[in-house]
Amino acid sequence: MTSRRQRQVALAALCLTPLLLAGCGVDAPASTGAGGGGEAGGSAGTASAQPAVDIDITGPDAVPAADEGEAKSIAFFGFARANSFANATWSGIEQYAQAHNATAQFFDPNFDAQTQVSQMQDALTSGRFDVFVVQANDGQAVIPAVQSAISAGISVVVEFTPVGTAYDSADPQVQGALTLIDVPTDNGKALGQMAVDACKQLGTQPCQVAYLEGNRSLPLDNARTEAVKQQLSSAGIEVVASVEGGYTNDSGRQAMQDVLQSDPDVDVVIGSTQAIAGAEGVVGQDVALIGNGGSRQALDAVRDGRWFGAYCTPEVTAGQTAAALGLAAARGTAVPASNDYAGLAPSGVAWPADMICTSSTVTGIEGQYDE
After folding, report:
1. H or E stretch at 269
2. What is the H or E stretch that residue 200 is in?
3. Are 367 and 300 in contact (CB under 8 A)?
4. Rounded to whole angstroms, how far apart are CA atoms 169 and 166?
5. Please, which residues bridge with residue 244 across strands?
6. What is the pLDDT of residues 221-278, one digit of tens each?
């Protein structure tokens, strides 16, 4: 590590101390605008040394090529190592790094936001990493660490969930960051629309929907929940139960049992794919199930007709793309600053519009990870 880089990391580490933030010259969170209107790139001095370009990123191959002569290192701050979705992201990051003269390391906070912040601080202080890919458990808690990493010349890619306070946009909310976001409110609208379609197919009046929320302590989950409810309300559909379903089979099964005690005539159930897999064991065959996630098991359930639908993100492709964006920027190549999941598709595959996988769209679509 050069002496200049050492000074940058040391200053950035000091800026992680809340009492010193005011004196470190770190910009407040701000949107850089849609379509890659911000700036990104460059591992020496600042993460905004190169102007961004305005192109659609559909996967890693769409990211502008960079000179790969110098080895780079990626730090991935995922939700949890035990989480199948985060592991799918990690698989993509690791695959891309190995093929493009880079190494990668998974930092496991086990869903704990403060642990994740501490891990980011430690990784920054170590001076070992050129790229941070941040899959934030709490998008607000990690803001100072993201700002400090950018100030130290690290290319930061905000992956899947926003870093900031807005959950209806893919635009960067921290100056100098890159994004690859599955916009939470768009996710909620898609889940709600599938429930509307399921109610139409069932033909029940009134159609009763139960929503198994993820984790009520997470701002992202709250934004998604509100979007689901608004979509259903606009269609005149009643949400008879909204309970925390979590992200495991056991939590989904327990939540569904609680729902059925008070609302035994539920027609449609929405939740994470893990929760829906648990709920499937306690509901009747005439209940339409909708999962949030694109695992192989979820898409097989849709294909087999056991589930009505699933919100199917190509998450390994997303991990590859996040790594490609971060490495290109770290190597001084201009890349789009604002990117979302809407256009992502594995090479050679026509992915369903809005990532809505139902019986009419799931043909030929394979999940990229196992639950």
Report:
1. strand 268-272
2. helix 184-202
3. yes
4. 7
5. 213
6. 999 999 999 999 999 998 999 999 998 999 999 999 999 999 999 999 999 999 999 9
